[in-house]
Amino acid sequence: ILSDARILSENHLTELHKDSFEGLLSLQHLDLSCNKIQAIERRTFEALPFLKSLNLRCNLISEVSFGTFQAWHGFQFLNELILNHNPLTTVEDSHLFKLPALKYLDMGATQVSLTTIENTILMSLELEKL
């Protein structure tokens, strides 16, 4: 399947698995907003090397587990990540802080600690808007 965008908002999805996006190699924009996602398996987004924007707002994500943003390609193009309006308290994946192209990160209306926000600012090389 060749497509550069998938809008999967409001589909009552509860979890994402590492094979959820197999075969969508050219996908650049993924909107998973307003679902009921609680769990994201390690390396779920690895099948998406050209991903530019990922919208996970308005879900039930309480933590970004280790390996969520770990991939062989290093997410060279991901420049927008939206995590707002989640009960997010913990970011255990250090790869999130090292996304090389990330310019826009929205963690508004979450319970993320000030320390996590500080780490994001210090480690994110290209971040323009938090």
From TrEMBL:
Which InterPro entries does the annotation name? Answer: Leu-rich_rpt, Leu-rich_rpt_typical-subtyp, LRR_dom_sf, LRRC37
Alphabetically ordered keywords of this record = Leucine-rich repeat, Repeat
Q: Which SUPFAM superfamilies match?
A: L domain-like
> What superkingdom heads the lineage?
Eukaryota
UniProt entry tagged with the keyword Repeat = yes
The record's listing under SMART domains reads: LRR_TYP
For this entry, the protein name equals Leucine-rich repeat-containing protein 37B-like
Its source organism is Galeopterus variegatus
Q: What is the lineage of its organism?
A: Eukaryota, Metazoa, Chordata, Craniata, Vertebrata
